[in-house]
């Protein structure tokens, strides 16, 4: 379904448990041979994948725009581009990775591929998460079955074509489309799957963990977030607030690591709220097939209804609407477009301060001093990312070290390709990207001689 037009543009076969059985059998049959390939052979394979991906880059950007509504400029600049960025990060890690070495005690320590891996990916950054699972799994020597989101299956089908053209051996990569309760559950529970790597909601991650438990398989999870953005009193407030609003609204707010809670000193709240209102009012909503820095629609009617309900909950619980609110923006009578929304006077006990909204909705909260800021930042069941703005590098770093999150961005910086992506608490376990991603797809073996 094209979320901008609410019209269907393709049909995809919905898999079932028997399809999972066939795919897992193919991956199991291919594992023994692929696990014995050399690092050099796998590096050559990744180089081939990169070349084919580059050739079909514009196709990838276009299909992501059509099926999930990311504006085409964002699809080219980020959505499709990360498919190359993450591959390059894994290649750098693989080049330096020692699969076998001797420890100080004299034992041989080996990293060996864990086996057949079930990969379950979301719709919001589809190729980002496919690449963060498929590429390190290949680098480690694993075979795999991918179940992409049923909301965004077309980019995964295109990626399957890319892998085939690049020469990935038969059975090493397998794709089964379907929904979570059918294909996802069958993959998670399958006795011949050694590992499940899942990205999505915390609720779904819990169900996958339960399904995987009887077979004691490894489960890595990259789940939800409610990331704080702490503005210390020595930062440039106009710049920091404006940047924070834009970052929160990027991808129409459909990012697990988005800075959705802006924490400002109580004494500077009115000033910050004014800058936030201006930034929200300057945010354009537009058709995803048009170039520009605007935001597009949400991915589906279900997501639209969820975001509308949470905006109404914020109003009902007494938060102040600084900008936006319920309903579609002016000029839109179809498509899953929403109004960029900012809430003020938000307290930690409000639903919108605790639940992941996954839309262009920012909540603004006040703190009294640095200790209070740390307390509020950590007062969430999540711990995926955090953001700190400060005019003093050491002060910003001190705040970053005290926040319980897997990634902390200081003064608008970003985590590099190859650095670990993942979170604390209910944001999941395990890490993706670079050497950490390769390690997650590996078993450790100690050999004494």
UniProtKB/TrEMBL annotation:
SUPFAM superfamilies named among the record's database cross-references: ALDH-like
Catalytic activity: an aldehyde + NAD(+) + H2O = a carboxylate + NADH + 2 H(+)
Active site: 222
One of the record's GO molecular function terms: aldehyde dehydrogenase (NAD+) activity
Keywords: Oxidoreductase
Enzyme class per UniProt: oxidoreductase
PANTHER family assigned to the protein according to its UniProt record, in alphabetical order: ALDEHYDE DEHYDROGENASE, ALDEHYDE DEHYDROGENASE-RELATED
Protein name per Swiss-Prot or TrEMBL: aldehyde dehydrogenase (NAD(+))
Organism of provenance: Roseivivax marinus
